[in-house]
Amino acid sequence: MANQELKILGQDGDDVCCEGLATAPLDEEQAADLAKIFKALGDPVRLRLMSMIASREGGEVCVCELTPAFELSQPTISHHLKLLRQAGLIDCERRGTWVYYWILPTALDRLAGFLAVPRAAKASV
Amino acid sequence: MANQELKILGQDGDDVCCEGLATAPLDEEQAADLAKIFKALGDPVRLRLMSMIASREGGEVCVCELTPAFELSQPTISHHLKLLRQAGLIDCERRGTWVYYWILPTALDRLAGFLAVPRAAKASV
DNA sequence: GGCTTGTATTGACGTTCATTGATGCAACCT
DNA sequence: AGGTTGCATCAATGAACGTCAATACAAGCC
């Protein structure tokens, strides 16, 4: 269950993580990889899921606590969780009857680093 | 031309920018606002446009330099630039015949700050 | 004025996405 | 074994998205 996420930025080979948005123009492959992750965050339900999980004391949340927070069907929440997992943003584990999700902070850190604009590029504002 | 972007995070009123992803669960409105911005970044063409503009010496790029970098029609590039502008990520100005685009670093900084996960939430990894 | 070049907008089309009800699978309980 | 609960997958549908050709608009040039 934990081995389904996509190959993520700079896991090996080309290293997207350490290059900022402003260091050099992205090539098509880098852009496609990153776009998948941003797209995963580009939905209000998924952003709320992320924040619900990330802000959780202990770092883990049971699906049974996430689903009732939305006025959406259970399959829909399950679908969004799957997309976040495929983007490498969260992971999960089954423990008995319940499934627990947690954030993968490394992915978030890489995104944050990617977005941080070096001072040079800020001069024009 | 410069006054069309959406009302952005924490421009006034509710302040999304200073709350991290992990500080508290997002409410629906905050999530919807942020999702628009992440969605704007969730396309490879738009990410490449962003990096081409951001990595540009001087911080400004003419559309006439962006369009030929893609195997896409000129209206398509124009459409993507419009979406980025509506998300508050870039702005533009017409100077004579040409239109120049530049990055709005504040928006990127806010996103980066939002994604930076506090140490507490990282313990579980 | 009319012509040319650069950019934005419109309208249409095919694809992808979010959502749901129905169903399947896993784990517990009696 | 049978029943129940938690979660994932499937198949279908309507909405949103990316793309383009055609067109419109803006600015410079003749």
CATH homologous group name of the domain at 28-112 in chain A: Winged helix-like DNA-binding domain superfamily/Winged helix DNA-binding domain
By CATH, the topology of the domain at 28-112 in chain A is Arc Repressor Mutant, subunit A
Shape of chain A: elongated
Specify Rg of chain A, calculated over alpha carbons.
16 Å
Strand arrangement across the biggest beta sheet of chain A:
1-3-2
Low-pLDDT runs of 5+ residues of chain A are 1-17
State the separation between the terminal residues of chain A, measured CA to CA.
46 Å
- CATH class assignment of the domain at 28-112 in chain A: Mainly Alpha
Number of helices of chain A: 5
Mean pLDDT of chain A, as a whole number? 85
Following the backbone from N to C, one meets helices and strands of chain A in this order, namely: HHEHHEEH
Beta-strand level of the residues of chain A, as a percent range?
Answer: 5-15%
Multimerization state:
homodimer
Helix content range of chain A: 40-55%
Number of strands of chain A: 3
* CATH architecture group name of the domain at 28-112 in chain A: Orthogonal Bundle
Task: Report on the biggest sheet of chain A.
Answer: 3 strands, antiparallel
Structural class call of chain A reads alpha+beta
The greatest interface between two protein chains, and residues involved on each side, is:
A-B, 50 and 50 residues
